[in-house]
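Supplementary Methods. Inverse-folding protocol.

Structures were first reduced to a discrete structure-token string of length 216. This string, shown here, constituted the complete conditioning input.
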């Protein structure tokens, strides 16, 4: 039976080669698109940090009026206010906790061959690194004492370190950001995330953060 259908197919191919080729290409593109979509759905829908996802919690506070909710369906805001974030951190009810927000700053490189450029980073508490476990290439995160003393320190992403210092160990050196010098305490290694699950509000599939500095 298979050979019979194969013969029919070959006859059809010889009789209408262009139409047959278009059908084969169309079926191939459909299969490729379906497999790509299913693969992306599988990767994006899987647990990004399965060994601790049951202990990581995303805080939402509804401080809006019951008569004027943030969303029409009554859901609370996606993010807490600055005042609420500071109050939660001062309460210290969790083993590890980190308030954070996205920040853009101009970078003024020491290397005169590099022009100043804009960089997107993250302001957080040091517990961020223990909670989400980004790998370090050099150094490490700042300490709780440095959080408390409002020290001007920074952790650079790998690409930022390569751009500013050629990929060398830059721990202890300074980087000038918005006319303020920050001491480098650590440099991240490659941190490949399927989704930036620690900040879905500001872009789940955005580029990795280029630097991290204390919230304080």
């Amino acid at each position: 039976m298979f050979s019979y259908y194969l013969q029919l197919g070959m006859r059809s191919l010889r009789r209408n080669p262009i139409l047959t080729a278009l059908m084969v290409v169309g079926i191939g593109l459909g299969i490729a698109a379906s497999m790509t979509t299913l693969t992306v759905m599988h990767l994006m829908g899987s647990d990004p940090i399965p060994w601790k996802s049951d202990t990581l919690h995303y805080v939402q506070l509804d401080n809006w009026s019951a008569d004027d909710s943030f969303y029409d369906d009554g859901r609370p805001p996606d993010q807490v206010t600055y005042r609420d974030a500071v109050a939660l951190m001062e309460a210290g009810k969790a083993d590890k906790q980190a308030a954070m927000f996205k920040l853009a700053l101009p970078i003024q490189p020491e290397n005169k061959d590099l022009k100043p450029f804009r960089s997107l980073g993250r302001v957080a508490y040091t517990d961020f690194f223990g909670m989400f476990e980004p790998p370090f290439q050099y150094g490490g995160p700042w300490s709780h004492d440095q959080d408390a003393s409002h020290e001007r320190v920074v952790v650079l992403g790998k690409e930022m370190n390569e751009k500013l210092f050629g990929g060398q160990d830059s721990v202890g050196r300074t980087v000038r950001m918005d006319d303020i010098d920050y001491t480098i305490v650590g440099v991240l290694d490659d941190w490949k995330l399927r989704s930036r699950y620690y900040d879905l509000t500001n872009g789940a599939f955005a580029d990795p953060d280029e630097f991290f500095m204390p919230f304080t």
